[in-house]
Amino acid sequence: MATTTGLAAVTATGPGASEGRRGRGARPEPPLTPGRRRARRRNTIAAILFISPWIVGFLVFTLWPMIYSAYLSLTDYDVINDPDFVGFDNYVQLFQDPKIALSLGNTLFYTVIQVPLHVLVALGLAVLLNQAGRRSSGFFRTVFFLPRMTPPVAVGVLFLLLFNGQTGLINTVLGWVGIQGPAWTTDPAWVKPGLILMSLWAVGSSVIILLAALRNVPNELYESARIDGAGFWQQTRRITVPLISPTIFFVVIVNTIAAFQTFDEAYTAFFGAGNTTYSNDAALFYVIYLFQQGFQFLHMGYASAMAWVLFVIIMAITGIQVLVSRRFVYYEGDQS
Questions:
Q1: Do 121 and 203 contact (CB within 8 A), yes or no?
Q2: Rounded to two decimals, what is the model's pTM?
Q3: Burial (CB count within 10 angstroms: exposed 0-12, middle 13-18, buried 19+), residue 45
Q4: Closest CA to 124 of 144, 100, 95, 154
Q5: Distance CA 157, CA 245 (A)
Q6: 230: which of 88, 151, 225, 320 fits an S-S bond (Cβ 3.0–4.6 Å)?
């Protein structure tokens, strides 16, 4: 059966397929008359006009700031005085700044732990929702997504309340079962794990995306697997995960980029309003240090160089993920 399907696919996509479709009974494409050319030109102009707001927005608010920040990264600029061209001095200074290594290490640690945990929790919740009825599923979809609408500043304040080592709700609940909770907000070893756990508050958007992918998996495959004696875990491994692997890959890419740009919650909890009570170095993520250099110390040229280094790092990691995905991501209709 698989061989027959493969031959059918090859036949349908082979060199002669297009000729067969254009063979007997197929009407040739009419020549482009002046009237049709004008109509096509009008359609093209209309399409450009419809997308022109996006084009203008991209040019003004994305492309031009990127080009200007690339120029600023080669200058010494403090916002007050005119930029002073210094070449690659800012990039050389990056490799000599110990806080660059510290903040980048914090960011990598956060990303490596947070992204897989985020995907696993989101996938587990999506599988549970997929088993629920339509009405209850709609209710829980709303419940899971609502935290995503919470302002990040409020989440940062909530982190301090929930994870307080003395009076926080998390340690209080752990104490009920005889576990001595750590000092989440003051112990450098527990600051990043606490922020990772807090990030799961906003897992709802990934749950919705993965649930939509699960709903598109044909039920016939599960029925055939159950007839063959496959259990839940075998069905998940052999059917569910492969068929939704493109969606999982999308969630991984999006959350990896977001994790490298983590700022709001950590800054609010550990750096906002001149906070010096807690262990700030453990929560000093790369984007927070970039913000400090640009908007607190007014080293705008240095901050621009940091931004471009982060851009290159994210592009490199995304490229690696795309290359690795070719071995693990299954696309429907892929004959290889």
A1: yes
A2: 0.81
A3: exposed
A4: 144
A5: 35
A6: 225
CA distances from 90 to 7, 188, 230, 291 (A): 59, 29, 59, 16
The partner residues of 84 in beta bridges, in order of sequence, read 76
Task: Look at phi and psi of residue 329 and say left if phi exceeds 0, alpha if psi is from -120 to 50, else beta.
Answer: beta
**CA separation for the pair 214, 212 (Å, rounded):** 5
Tell me, what DSSP letter sits at residue 283?
A: G
Domain extent listing, the chain: 96-328
Whether the Cβ atoms of residue 290 and residue 303 lie closer than 8 Å to each other: yes
List average pLDDT for each run of 10 residues in the chain, which is 336 residues long.
38 43 54 80 92 94 94 94 93 94 95 95 89 72 81 83 85 88 88 91 90 89 87 85 92 95 89 59 93 93 96 96 88 61
Which single residue is written with the structure tokens 């067969």? 20
Q: Is 221 left (phi over 0), alpha (psi -120 to 50) or beta?
A: alpha
Closest by CA position to 299, among listed 83, 64, 71? 83
pLDDT of residue 333: 60
State the burial class of residue 19 (Cβ atoms within 10 Å of its Cβ: 0-12, 13-18, 19+): exposed
CATH topology of domain 96-328: MetI-like fold (1.10.3720)
Helices (H), the chain: 2-13, 17-21, 34-58, 64-72, 89-94, 98-131, 134-145, 152-162, 169-176, 188-199, 204-215, 219-227, 232-235, 241-243, 245-260, 264-270, 286-291, 300-328
CA pair distance 223, 167, nearest whole angstrom: 51
User: What's the rounded Cα separation, in Å, for the pair 202 and 219?
Assistant: 30
3-state secondary structure of 299: coil
Question: 255: closest CA among 298, 210, 309?
Answer: 210
**DSSP 3-state of 229:** coil
- Give the list of residues 6+ apart from residue 76 with CB closer than 8 angstroms, or none: 83, 84, 86, 89, 90, 301
